[in-house]
UniProtKB/TrEMBL annotation, chains A, B:
Protein name from the UniProt record: Tyrosine--tRNA ligase
UniProt keyword annotations, A-Z: Aminoacyl-tRNA synthetase, ATP-binding, Ligase, Nucleotide-binding, Protein biosynthesis, RNA-binding
UniProt family annotation: Belongs to the class-I aminoacyl-tRNA synthetase family.
Pfam families associated with the record: S4, tRNA-synt_1b
Lineage start: Bacteria, Bacillati, Actinomycetota, Actinomycetes, Propionibacteriales
SUPFAM superfamilies in alphabetical order: Alpha-L RNA-binding motif, Nucleotidylyl transferase
Protein EC: 6.1.1.1
Domain of life: Bacteria
Biological processes per GO annotation: tyrosyl-tRNA aminoacylation
GO MF: ATP binding; RNA binding; tyrosine-tRNA ligase activity
Length: 400, 400
């Protein structure tokens, strides 16, 4: 058996807080397989590298013989988790829930081992469907209004004058009771779930069971540097992304994120992580090389070293020096000259004038490698002109 | 059929607000027997004249063929109605709930007719015991946190830093859904129940049923003039009080309450009520006579005119002119003189010195009809002395 303290040390690379660390050490020392609660609601999943931070921790524990209990919150999905939602979310049909659950399991299996000994699949409808209303109300009696309202998200909604439906208000109670019902020893969650999982400890203690250990992981910023990775912002690397997409998306992050990403999304040694951070701070080619190493490490983790090598080569081929691709679409323009804005209108007909002006303002437009500051700048069209608009969109403007 | 408008007029004597009056007129006009929700929780009941105001309104409607649905909130009693409670109340056992329910029905039958055609008895466990948790949560989804927190009592608790358990918070939702489940047309409640019953209308509308009419009655002050009639203050006339106790308690009210009591607790014509009010305002013997008439009218309502006459005579015999009773206990004291406090110690051996001093301070002690201000005042015991302590406690102190 691995020394419990070593196990906790290994987890520490990506954990934020551990509530009940002494319990964790003691339970690891007992030699008994721990039951690790991995609770999800059954809305349409698109797991990304951020989610996978927790999954990899669970995977480490699976490799030591501990058991992940993958809890599909099918009942609670019918209720709707308000976490991080400013608005009440729509209710799903049972068929949608089942479909989402299947998709969830598929995605989870990219990281987790799925042999029955280390992965048990449960649904919280198992204990809620047969629970008498009086018993549920008894659970409600174990929690106060003030406890629930202590939750940041509820307070924020109230402060903003937004509504909280009562089923949302009681959601944490249900999620908390789940921990008791499934005999959770440990749960590894994003820090936004800390409140709900502490209610889990509360219920276990109230109902005479040992309280689960709660490990939280820090939430990593999105590809664009924003705090939240979200579908609507499309700013994350999904586990189901192709190796090429993973590689390309990681090459697009701001230099300032390289070290963080290498720290939480790879298993590169920590001194390598630090070196990548320093290189990224320099900018230019060193930062670019650091990103290539980061992208290769992530692709290696999910798809193996061979695929990572292939993608690295493909990327270098496409975005050769100066990041100008070897091949790009050509557009013929039968004029002597045109403003940058006019050229942009031709190559990006779907964008509005104001969007195109904004692109210029953001410094995302270049003509023959020179950044353009003024959308009305006139460009002579005597010979080929290379027009870059956005990070990776290139056009060759050819005199007609 | 009685003209619907006349029915509503008759109710108006003791109603405060009618929510949905147009619906009420229309439903009365339909000729169909209305279902009148009379919901109670099953804590130990001690129904008093205040409760009976609503019961008499229901009785009027029963006499017109409408049906009272007496709803025992056995499920919700297990939850605990927080109305008017500053603290979370203890949970009752099923056996206690059943015993209380029986006692409730006994007391209610003092006013209501109990033939099956006009009295149906239901329990809300009928619909809650078999309700799946998901369905209950669906109901919760129809109500917002802000709606619940709009309730005065919850706001007051929060302002006072007192806890609201979550089962208490959702109590109004359960009480509201009851109205839908039992197909309530009308409910007659104290104004403190208005919030919960409006949630009933909310649910009926949300679930596609016609919303119940809500009639509220004003809450009448207690015998001591305090706003609330409560067991701990022992300041009400219970329906199960003997005729003698009813009579005596009503004689003890402040003059200022005579008109209100006559208005809401009797069927005396309104001009008589006004005359009693004027007489009470005069004070002295006219006020006393007004109270006698009030007491007799209440006893008549519950026990018939014969009993009322008997009690009136008994009261007059006991508390003859000056309210000094014809007969009183005699105590022999073998001393020449004693202080008032010493005499009080002899006749009220169970009261502490400080309680007795307080009695004097309150002006409740008199010697030979003269109010005593100083507990240390010396009283000569040469002949009989009449000692009054409290409103109706008299002793004859006799030289030994």
């Amino acid at each position: 058996m691995i020394e419990p303290r070593l196990v906790v040390e290994r987890l520490r690379r990506t954990t934020d807080t551990v509530i009940g660390e002494a319990d964790l050490l003691e339970r690891l020392a007992s030699g008994r397989p721990l039951r690790i609660k991995y609770g999800v609601d059954c809305t349409a999943p698109d797991l990304h590298l951020g989610h996978a931070v927790n999954l990899w921790l669970m995977r480490q524990l699976q490799d030591l013989g501990h058991q992940v209990v993958f809890l599909l919150g099918d009942l609670t999905t019918r209720v709707g988790d308000p976490t991080g939602r400013t608005e009440t979310r729509p209710v799903l049909t049972p068929a949608q829930i089942e479909e989402n659950a299947r998709s969830f399991l598929d995605q989870v299996s990219i990281v987790l081992r799925t042999d029955l000994e280390v992965l048990e699949v449960r649904r919280n409808s198992e204990w809620y469907d047969g629970m008498p209303v009086a018993e549920l109300l008894g659970l409600f009696g174990q929690v106060t209004h003030a406890q629930l309202m202590a939750r940041d998200m509820f307070r924020e909604r109230v402060a903003a004058g937004r509504e909280i439906a009562v089923h949302e208000l009681v959601y944490p109670v249900l999620q908390g009771y789940d921990s008791f019902a499934m005999r959770s020893d440990l749960t590894i969650v994003g820090s936004d779930q800390l409140f709900n999982e502490q209610l889990g400890r509360h219920f276990q203690q109230r109902l005479g069971a040992p309280p689960q250990v709660v490990v939280t992981t820090t939430i990593t910023p999105g590809l664009d540097g924003r705090a939240k990775q979200s579908k609507s912002l499309n700013n994350y690397v999904a586990l189901t992304d192709t190796p090429r997409d993973k590689f390309g998306k990681l090459m697009s992050i701001p230099d300032s994120l390289v070290e963080t990403y290498a720290h939480v999304y790879t298993e590169l040694p920590l001194d390598t992580v630090a070196a990548l951070g320093s290189a990224a701070a320099v900018g230019g080619p060193p930062a670019r090389d650091a990103k290539l190493q980061l992208a290769a490490a992530v692709v290696t983790r999910y798809h193996g070293a061979g695929t990572a090598r292939t993608e690295l080569e493909a990327f270098n081929r496409t975005f050769s020096d100066g990041q100008q691709p070897a091949e790009m679409p050509e557009v013929s323009v039968a004029r002597q000259a045109a403003t940058v804005l006019e050229l942009l209108r031709i190559v990006r007909p779907d964008d509005s004038r104001s969007e195109l002006r904004r692109l210029v303002r953001q410094g995302a437009v270049a003509v023959d490698g020179q950044r353009v500051d003024d959308p009305d700048q006139v460009v002579a069209l005597a010979a080929d002109v290379l027009l870059r608009s956005g990070r990776r969109t290139w056009h060759r403007i050819r005199p007609a």
